[in-house]
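Hi! If you just cloned this repository, the fastest way to understand the data is to look at a raw example. We've pasted two of them here, unedited. The first protein comes first, obviously.
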Amino acid sequence: MVYDWASSVLPTLHTTFIFAVYFTTILSPDNGTFTWAMMTSIAALATGLLAPVLGHLADKKGLVKKGLILTTCLAAIAVMGLWFAAPDARFIALALGLSGLAIFFSELAFIYYNSLLPKIAPAAALGRISGYGWGLGYAGAIFALLLVLGLFILPDTPFFGLSAEAGEPVRASMVFAGLWLIVFSLPLFFARHETAPQSDKQAFLASLRQSWKIAISLPDMVRFLIARMAYNDGLITLFAFGGIYAANVFGFDQKDILIFAIGLNITAGLGAIAGGPLTDKWGAIRIIQISLAGLFGLGLICLLTKSLMIFWAASLCLGIFIGPCQAASRVWVARIAPAEHHASLFGFLALSGKLTSFIGPFLYGWAVYITGLERAGMAIVLGLFVLGFVLLPRQRSL
């Protein structure tokens, strides 16, 4: 669970609240939202295409732990490289390239990490442990945001004498994020746990096809993966553009966005912790349905309101439903997956979450580009939540 604490900082500081806003408002103010959307789309598509192959390779060769370490370190290196993304148009390509790599490797790392869940947790406690882990991740994000706020963003003279005009407080936050990821991943890196290689001599491609056949033969697996394509696209788009939306629609500055992020992470963490035991009690499908209904209703309020106070209240309440939706999704797969195919099936889960996940950011970017309205982009997110709810399997026992 400490890995949740370590890894949650990257999407929080980089993809949603700090660097994404810096890129779209400072580094590339003209078409920054559009180009950031296209970058996140490409990174998601690449993750989706490679996830099943790499997950199956990890199962077959016993490389789950090594894959986790490699992809985590590469993600940290990529995000720390953003220190060199000064507020000059010459560095736009560098910022996009390194950001894409950071997203790509951090998402691959979660395939390996999630596949460890059913190996260390008893079936009756999967929801609790998954939810507590996700909640700890939000706690880590809050703590990191507070440190970044206190050291780099709020002081008139930032820590280390960093220059605000040169964007150094934001760039230093990316170095901080990479170091945080590495340091707090060390307990899991040094834990003595690795899956054994499989003994079958079947060719890799034939073995991969066999894993796919097993995946589609599991009850409701295909329907669940298709539903997750939709609602995960909505979550990805919400994470990628939540801070941008607040900045462009309600005039949030960098300090406002950090406070906003802290509040969202508090409510999301509380939701994940509360949702864990409820997932064990009610089943993952029911928790996902409740979460999607909450996300849609509160998201609609955020979309329609012009009141800053109502936006704040609805957004913070919306956070309660984010954590349970994510944590319950990996619990459903952990419960249904055969032990020898955990990484493979979590690879297919990543495929369902990433293969089409470029669609949300892609549509968001084009909606904003065509209409000039950030609200038009956010409407895409709500539609994806509705689609995911409709497509979910109806059985609720798992």
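Ok, and the second one:
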Amino acid sequence: MNIFYNFAIYVAFFFLHIIALFNSKIRLFINGRKNVFTELKNHISENDRTIWIHAASLGEFEQGLPVIDKLKAEYPENKIVVSFFSPSGFEVKKHTSKADFVTYLPMDTPGNMKKFIKLLDPKLAIFIKYEIWPNLLRELRNNGVPTILISGIFKSNQIYFKWYGGFMRKALNTFSHFFIQDIESKKLLNTINLYNTTISGDTRFDRVSEILVQDNKLDFMDSFKKSSLCFVLGSTWPEDEAILVEYINSTSHEIKYVIAPHNIVAKDIERLKQKITKRTALFSENTEVVSGDPEVLIIDTIGLLTKIYSYADMAYVGGGFTRGGLHNTLEPAVFGIPVITGPEYEGFKEAQELVNLRGIFPVKDTTEFGQIADKLRLDSNFRFKAGNINATYISENKGASIQVMNHIRTLL
């Protein structure tokens, strides 16, 4: 099986080179890996003690930040190295102050991983949520590197739990410890004789809780919202916007809308603006103070959404019209406001639980969206109750990073 796996990795990388000629994201994926080993040699010396954290993409990095921050504070003599598999994580965080060095993870070939681990020489390896690479994990085990998974979550349909998944089960056996989100994951791991587990929950609860204590003031939001009710529509995709714009255009009540699209492409932003019949402004036109008293503000930049949510009375989180695409519902929920999403929320544990608790409301079309949006707007008691459900849920689920750090202290 190992031979077939390695062959598949080489074949995939070959075809990715071809796809990169026509796809800019894949081009970043390929080109970003060309100088990984040279950069490692330049940034990591033989005398360095390194702690290595691997994240698939930006979401997993954010998920791991509570642990990364604690590592930097408690082990300042160690270099914190963060690796990404996806360009969407690396390109955004390649200059982050949270790490001493940020790199791409090479493709999982035996030669690449042998060289990568030799140059990096980590004293501890931390994987966030998933990313199971057999050659990499085998190399870590061969070098005696303690390796832990944090905020892991497992499902019965994953290959590890199938009769043909022996090769990947063997890779899981290389982990020193699993910090997992729920009892279901623990039971599944037990079925394949993995008992080195702790149900710690999700470190994202710790991460979003930190948002509450940061400075969330934004002058442009103060001038835009004033005393109006504010509805923030975050991380939206065209499928979301088709419903949202129809609702915005059809309502006459006084309410301020903020739309923060997931993809910031100038022509798409302008197309969105033209579809809205209410007074609409772009953030790029009013970066300090929003002038002209617009009813709709489109955020055509990144990095502001978490602070903007602090001004919301209710929120919509995009991506829920594509299976597996729902964005982070905890970011607005932590501010104690109700959240609306699209219908595809299955597989997102926190969204499923908050839907059941009635803090998140999934909708499948404009009619359903209008019904719940109007109820939240008109019934303040209903709005506050739903928001309080969300805030309480997050508060009760904090603490995963503390359990992880207690274990790490036994390893370093």
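That's it. A detail worth noticing about the second one: Residues 340 and 373 are 8 Å apart (CA to CA).
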